[in-house]
């Protein structure tokens, strides 16, 4: 893939990718932007390996999802238990200016795979097959994550008012 081809493909997916990450980050725009930038750099560096073996957006979303999961692992490894109990985790707090605060607060409490499956299925209109490719699991597991995620999200939304 040439640099120009990569740029054109990214232009078509850039806003949707940012929305995806913004939702995974529960409205934290700064974190979503950082992850989007890191994901695009990773994608560009590995673009020579992309041989049009699938949909570009699935390949790009998989990189973004893995970047998101890696950031969560790093954050949990560098944050001590005392820090977690002494102060709120502002990296996950919803943007105060964003109108979906209650949704983000509820999504923040879901497991990352459930959150990702719900976001991709309902907000990005992706198929279970494509979601399975992005999060590296089976379609049956995605259907189970969607089912559990809907139930958990409903409970969380009722709790958040």
CATH fold-level topology: Butyryl-CoA Dehydrogenase, subunit A, domain 3
Structural class: mainly alpha
Alpha carbon gap, first and last residue: 49 Å
CATH class: Mainly Alpha
How large is the count of helical segments? 8
Poorly predicted regions: 79-97
In the CATH hierarchy, what is the superfamily?
A: PhyR, sigma-like (SL) domain
Describe the global form: globular
Which labels suit this protein?
161 residues; mainly alpha; Butyryl-CoA Dehydrogenase, subunit A, domain 3; 73% helix
3D structure, described in words:
By secondary structure, the protein is mainly α. The protein has a single domain (3-160), classed as PhyR, sigma-like (SL) domain (Butyryl-CoA Dehydrogenase, subunit A, domain 3, Up-down Bundle), CATH 1.20.140.160. It has helices spanning 3-24, 29-45, 56-78, 81-86, 101-108, 112-123, 128-135, 139-160.
Give the topology.
Blueprint: H1 3-24, H2 29-45, H3 56-78, H4 81-86, H5 101-108, H6 112-123, H7 128-135, H8 139-160
Helix pairs in contact: 1-2, 1-3, 2-3, 3-7, 5-8, 6-8, 7-8
In short:
This protein is mostly helical. 73% of the residues lie in helices and 0% in strands.
């Amino acid at each position: 893939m040439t640099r120009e081809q990569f740029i054109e493909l990214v232009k078509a997916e850039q806003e949707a990718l940012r929305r995806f990450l913004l939702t995974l980050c529960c409205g934290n725009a700064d974190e979503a932007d950082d992850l989007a930038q890191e994901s695009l750099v990773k994608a560009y560096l590995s673009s020579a390996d992309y041989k049009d073996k699938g949909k570009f957006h699935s390949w790009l979303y998989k990189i973004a999802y893995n970047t998101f999961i890696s950031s969560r692992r790093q954050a949990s490894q560098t944050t001590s238990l005392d820090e977690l109990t002494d102060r709120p985790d502002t990296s996950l707090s919803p943007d105060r200016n964003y109108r979906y605060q209650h949704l983000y607060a509820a999504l923040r409490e879901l497991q990352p795979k459930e959150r990702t499956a719900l976001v991709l299925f309902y907000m990005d209109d992706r198929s279970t097959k494509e979601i399975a490719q992005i999060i590296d699991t089976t379609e049956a597991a995605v259907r189970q994550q969607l089912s559990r995620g809907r139930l958990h999200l409903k409970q969380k939304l009722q709790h958040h008012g």
